[in-house]
User: Fold this.
Amino acid sequence: MKEDIFDVLIYLFENYLDGDSENYPDTDVIASELLEAGFQQPDVNKAFDWLESLAEIESISPSVPSSFRIFSNQEIAVFDLECRDFLMFLEHSGILTPANREIAIDRAMVLQDENITLDRLKWIVLMVLLSQPGDSAAFFQNGRYRLRFDTYFFTLNFERTA
Assistant:
């Protein structure tokens, strides 16, 4: 099985990023654990860089209350119709703000060489939502991640890709 940066991100999310950030081990300890688990050093480095870039993204304040999104040719090459429809569905459902949609697109474009599938895009969206304070709460229940938005629940079903 070929591991890639995306597999490292999922591993980090499942083992560290959805828990108590006060008790995370040192980055070097986590990197050593990832290498012992069989991940390659370049993928580990890229995953840490991806997460650091996500953490550095400041809140975007849109100047208009709603927006219309046209995907560029480069984005269409990365996001198939199913992925684009999913992003628009999340935005129209009030789950993604236009700002968070753009962050999710940006983070996926960074990973464009990693074959962005719908399942991978779901993980990216979940990581983006959890990185933005106050936008949502998420928890794991019955093998699924559930996102809570005020009184509205949305369930993301994930499949691990081989």
User: Anything to note?
Assistant: Residues 19 and 93 are 27 Å apart (CA to CA). The helical segments are 5-17, 27-36, 41-56, 73-78, 81-92, 98-110, 118-131.
